[in-house]
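Quick start: read one record
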Amino acid sequence: MTDLAIPGVRRIDFTTEDARARMRSRYRAEARFKAYGLIAIGLTTLFILLVLADITYRGIPAFFQYHMVTDVRIDPQEIDPQNTRDPAVLRAGDYTALVRNTLRAMFPEVKDRSGRRQLNGLVSSGAADDLRQRVLADPSLVGQTIEVPLLLSDDSELYYKGAGTRISRKPGRGIASPSGTTGDITIFSSANDFAADLVEVKRDLAKQARDLRTRAEFIRRKAGEVEALRNAAERELAEARASGDATRIRIAETRFTSYRAEAQTLSQRAEDLEAEAAGLQSRFERPATEETIGSSVPSVLVAINGGMVKVTDLGNAAVSGRVLLPLDSASDAAPDTWSIVTFETPEDDRRVNDREVAWLENIRDQGMITSGFNWAFFTSGDSREPELAGIRGALVGSALTLLVTLVVCVPLGVAAAIYLEEFAPKNRFTELIEVNINNLAAVPSIVFGLLGLAIFLNFLGLPRSAPLVGGLVLALLVLPTIVIAARAALKAVPPSIKEAALGVGASHQQAVTHHVLPLAMPGILTGTIIGMAKALGETAPLLMIGMVAFIVEPASSVTDAATVLPVQIYLWSDLPEIAFQAKTAAAIMVLLAFLFLMNGTAIYLRRRFERRW
């Protein structure tokens, strides 16, 4: 008898059109579900790649460092006037003066105090320290002139790395005639070479006028809102005076006076902006007139006869300006032998001004700039100067902190897992412990920081900002993860192995320690490495125990003050200097590299030693 003949059994027909339609609908639903999963995975991968690409793009410049290679005379008068060659005297010498004298010899025309201060700012304060180390290593250099790579400052490095401004160069078509070689001069062109730059300046003035009008309109609206509040306060003041209540009158008068003053201030500010915008617009509407180049518009410079001139007054065929680099001569410059240089970012919006840019370009044109891998990023401690800051102290602090974490949490975690899995009686107390361990694995990390602050610092009095305390806090954080992973690894060992050991006379402890534990060790190691990777990336609990201090020298023991890599990233991200943005991204790259390495090691150990039962 077939199924179709069994009473009560529903007959399913796959041959009708309705049945085929249902099948097609089911397949379409499965295809949509699969597509949604692929789209989710694709979007996740895309976002991860975008984040990694952004971090890499921002961090790569920090791995390269720029130096100015030049001849420096080791003047005995600055570092060893008595010619003692005593290391203590040489160490105390004024090596900064040697660097300053070298820069002044390169640009002897710089006489003013402001210019010399800007000139000294081209190189890092650490350049003198490098020079000191060279002389201490070889005192015979005193009195000689040696070639030395001087470390550039962070602003100079940013300029050479392309973070300063976009520069456009346009060769001159006509004959250029400068009126002098230094000071304020005029340059005439026979081919109206400056007409295009004048048009660009006019356009920039029009853009500024539009921006000012937009701001004035916004302030006008704000003034209208305040005026409405002033009118309401005026009515309230009238009602208060009618009531005769002195306290109410005083409060109403204060509000009315405040709103009236604010409305007047906003109205005056809007009028000033509108007047300024009208002035800029009128300058834009006179296309043939000469324009004054201020610091709020793109800078225009003229490179001619080996010098550089900053344009202050721009016309179609002639410009006037101040000489930044002296010209070799005042003779006429033939076409294509001189050029117009435009710095597209206004001087007000740049870290280096036009004078410093002229010096930097001159130094680069002389072939004195070299770049190389920034080993100091890994060998130096933290510093307030971006070009001198490194992650050595953070790396040492992270290593010591993780060492304490590993020593504390691995024995405790594995022992707790073995006891709970193999020896603990199955009752409500052990069930409560297991539930709490699982809950602790999900507790926010900052809670463990508060616990460490209360117990290790306030109660036990352990040293603040020390790897010892940081390791203990992270051990509390990682311990539940290791216990859970170790228990899972012990459960994965077939019970027959322990039973066989017990069958040949081994005790319960021998069966566990000699047979079960070695077979579970790959899983335990995997969980431990993942837990250590989690601890390496933690910041919040360490901030709570004071590991946010500025640490220059790396710690030599677990009780010395130290910081860790995630906290170092946090500190750098909060600093205003632009160069620290690249340092922050580079430190993130190093941290991610360690995390990938640790997780990759865990995957390798799992695949290498995992056994199929």
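Residues 167-195+298-379 form one domain.
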